[in-house]
Amino acid sequence: MKEDFLHHVWQFKKFDLTNLKTTQGEFVQVVNAGQYLQRAGPDFFNAQLVIGGQRWAGNVEIHLKSSDWYHHSHETDTNYDNVVLHVVWEHDADVMRRNGAEIPVLELRNYVDGLLLANYQHLASAKTWINCETELEHISPFVMDNWKERLFFERLERKAQPMLQLAAATNGDWEAVLFAFLSRNFGLNTNGNSFFDMAKSLPFNVVRRESFELENLEAILFGRSGMLGGTYEDVYPKDLQTRYEYIAHKYQLPVFIPAPADYFRHRPDNFPTIRLAQLAAVYNTHQNLFSKIMSANTLPELYELFNVQVQSYWLKHYRFDKESPSKRKTLSASFINLLIINTVVPVKFAYSKSIGKDITESLIDILQQLSPESNAIIDKFRYYKIPVQSAYDSQSLLQLKNEYCSHHRCMHCAVGLQLLKR
Question: Mind listing the pLDDT tens digit for each residue in 322-361?
């Protein structure tokens, strides 16, 4: 058993409220269970109780065992001086305040309905993947749809938070924010962090000023990513080296030591060289990319922003000095979808939030038109007969698995709470 089950039982009064008695034999009446704080300090704030005929207003602390009071050192913590009731599953020790006064204890196991407990134990029992895997398909569509919407915005809020922080650090330069997070997603999982650090190390006004010449943009991105340090035979990388040295001197670029680019386990189309060349092409084609993204409200408009072609050298190369059969290196639809899911939609949400504008419906509409991501988590949900029809569904389910199922937060999940009501 976990404490969050007891929190749920107390918060929603899922126990027999008649004839409640403390372990000391005093009658208890719960007038108000209090506010569930979910932060440091007592679990429930400003509860209203009648204990032994005396009305109390104060805090309630909940533990599995009474002795946990001492294991958590509450007896020496001033935050717990106003605890008026200690609610536990099992009473195994008397507890005292710092002043030595005994705190009344309510042992919940004497008052919880056996069916509710059985449902919880079934839900919390060991499964092969997640606790509710065998019951998922039977959850009411109404419950699941409402829960997915909340999950979607939880995930969007989490993605937006670092964007808002970077916006604050750059004095509201949202073009710079977009450039940093777009760089991260062009780098995918393996090179994303190094591309992100590279982008943040680069004053964005340099990108602005040099964006009219594609070769200068490539020189900046390859140079800052540590990809121009070799001795080359081809004319093109030699030219990029010269350009980068000039630009670095011209703008007095700060020293930056990048992480080595990772080519391992990548298909050639995902090589960091190709992704940086494509990123340069995007910014060469659209000097005001952030403004254009904020103005784009349909998928075709967004797709058009990423319909770019790399510099001609890359048509026959994946790496410097290594010629390959000619191939156009355009951004695939699936890659653009990832950019929309992980960068465009979160940036639009974060900026709109910063100016107090609500565009949530349009963001949902965009993601409901996109194909869902394909990964092991989404495949598992499909295996357990949960429909995944769009990126909106897959983003919601990723949030569910990563933030709730993986941490056994069933008592904070609409699915888990629904199963307790069976």
Answer: 999 999 999 999 999 999 999 999 999 999 999 999 999 9
Instruction: State the pLDDT at residue 221.
Output: 98
Residues 127-164 pLDDT 10s: 789 999 989 999 999 999 999 999 999 999 999 999 99
Tell me the one-letter amino acid at 276: L
Q: How confident is the model at residue 88 (pLDDT cuts 50, 70, 90)?
A: very high
201-221: per-residue pLDDT in tens?
999 999 999 999 999 999 999
Backbone angles phi, psi at 48, to 5 degrees: -120, 120
Nearest CA to 196 out of 176, 214, 210 is that of 176
DSSP 66-103: TTHHHHTTGGG-GGGTTEEEEEEEE--S--B-TTSPBP
Residue 332 carries which DSSP code?
P
Report the Cα 202 to chain-centroid distance in Å.
Answer: 26
Question: Is residue 280 a contact partner of residue 216, using CB atoms and an 8 Å limit?
Answer: no
State the DSSP H helix or E strand holding residue 319, giving kind and residue range, or none if neither.
Answer: strand 317-319
Q: How many residues does the chain have?
A: 422
Distance CA 165, CA 169 (A): 6
**Residue 415, token pair as written in the block:** 């699915």
- C-alpha torsion sign, points 301, 306, 312, 317: negative
Q: Is 308 helix (H, G, I), strand (E, B) or coil?
A: coil
d(CA 222, CA 6): 55
State the Cα–Cα distance between residues 40 and 83, nearest whole angstrom. Answer: 14
Residue 350 tokens read as 């974060």
List the structure tokens of 409.
Answer: 């937060």
d(CA 369, CA 302): 12
DSSP H helices in 170-271:
174-186, 188-201, 204-210, 214-224, 235-250
| Whether the predicted pLDDT of 126 surpasses 80 | no
CA dist., res. 249 & res. 251, Å (int):
6
Q: Per-residue pLDDT for 422 more than 80?
A: no
Buried b / exposed e over 65-88, threshold 16 CB at 10 Å, is: ebbbbeeeebeeeeebeebbbbbb
- State the CB neighbour count (10 A cutoff) for residue 278: 20
Q: DSSP string spanning 211-224?
A: TTSHHHHHHHHHHH
pLDDT confidence of 99, banded at 50, 70, 90? Answer: confident
3-state secondary structure of 346: helix
Q: How far apart are CA 346 and CA 363, in angstroms?
A: 9
